[in-house]
Specification:
single chain, alpha+beta, three-stranded mixed beta sheet, 10 helices, disordered N terminus, disordered C terminus
Length: 414
Amino acid sequence: MKTTKHIFAFFTFLFVFLVIFSPETFALYLDSPSLGYAIDLPDDFRMTDSNGFDSYQFSSELLPVEILLCTYQPGKAKNCEKIVNELVYKLNGACDSETFTWRNRDCAVAQTALVLGSQNYLGWAAAAELPYQKGYVAMLGFYPENDRQADICENHIISAIDSLCTDLGAKYQSGIFTSFAYPALGDEEIEVTIAENKISAMIDKNDAEASEYLIQREFDILVLENNNGFGQAACQRFYKMVFRDSYKRLRRFSFAVQNALTFGENPVKSQRELVQTLLTWTQNFEYVRDNNNSDFTPLVKLINGNGGDCDSRAILLAVMLRQMNLDTAFFVSSKYSHALLGVQIEGNGAKIKADGQLDCPVNRDTAERVLKVAKQLGYRRNNAAASLRSGRSHTIAVITSDIFAARAIGVFVL
C-alpha cells in the first residue's frame, strides 16, 4: 500500500509522546505510562511509521489494513467529534460521526471514506477523552474500497479500536466500539439455582447480543491469524477480549451469587468451598458444541441455561471469582483438548509457583500433570503463553494454591 507509506505528511505534530517504539516493532500490546492508555491490536499488526512523538502507524501483515493512532494535548482540541472530523479531513476524507459517553467521558465514533492518491478507502475512526485532563487519543483504520476481504478488514479495524483502554478501569469494561454499537437498553432479571440457593440478579437486555457479536468478531480474527502462523498469540488475545467484555456485564450477577452463598442459608465456610460450589454448578451445565461458529457460548447466555463447552465455563468462573477478589488463570490446550481454571486459594493441593517449581503436599499425580503443562508453556508470572482453541474437552477446572499471582486473567497452554 504505497500511498500510505508517508501518511504522516498530512499531520502537524504538537505533543511529545513519552513511549517511543522503533519502526517494524510488532504491535501486540502497547501502552503509555505517561498518558495512561493502552492498545492491544490483533497480532498481525506491526508498527511501520511514527513521528516519534504523538502519531503512529500500524500495518497488517495479512490484510491491506492501516491503523493510525494520534494523541492530542489538552486545549489543542475542543472535543472528540472535532478531533475525528479534522483527522479524516486531513486525509482528504469525509465521515459520519456520532458522539456518546464511554467511561463517563466524551467519545466519538465515525464511519469514514478517504481518498489517498488515486485510491479510495473505507474505514472507522474513534476518539476518546483521557482522564485527569491529559488530552485525547484517536484511532483511524482504513482499507481499500471494494477489497475482496472487506468484511474481515472491517473486523480488524473495529477490533483494534475496541482494544483501546483509556485507563485501568477500561480493561474491565466493553470496548469503545462495542459500547457504541450496543448501548444499554435497561435491566432484566435472571434467576439461577446454586447449591439449592435461588438467586436473582439483573443484567442489561443488550448484554447477550453484544457479547455474541464480540465473540464472533474476535473468533473470525482468530481463525485468520491461526491459519497464518499467529495461533498462540491470537488465542490469548481472543480470550482476553472475551474476559474484558464480560467482566462488567456479570458484575451484579457475581455480587448476588457471592452474597447468597456467603450470607444465605447454609453459607460456605471457606474460599475453597466457595470455588468448589461454583465449580459443581458449572459442571452441571449442558455440554453444547457449535462447530459452525465460534463454539464459545456468551457468558450471559451460559448463566441463563444455554449450555456450552469447557472454555466458556472456565472463563465464566474466571470472571466471577475475580470479581469475588480471587486471582484466576485460564488454561487451554489444543493438544489435550481441555480448558481449565486456576484459582489462587489457601490450602493444601497441587501448586505452581512463579519459577515453575513443583510444590505438592498432596495428590502428586495431579500436580505432576499441572507442572508438565506449566513447563510446556514456559510458565512465567504475569506473562501468559497461549494456544490454539481446543476441540473436544472433558474437564473444566482444577483448584490449586499459588497458581497465579496477578490481578488479571492469564491465558496458558496446557
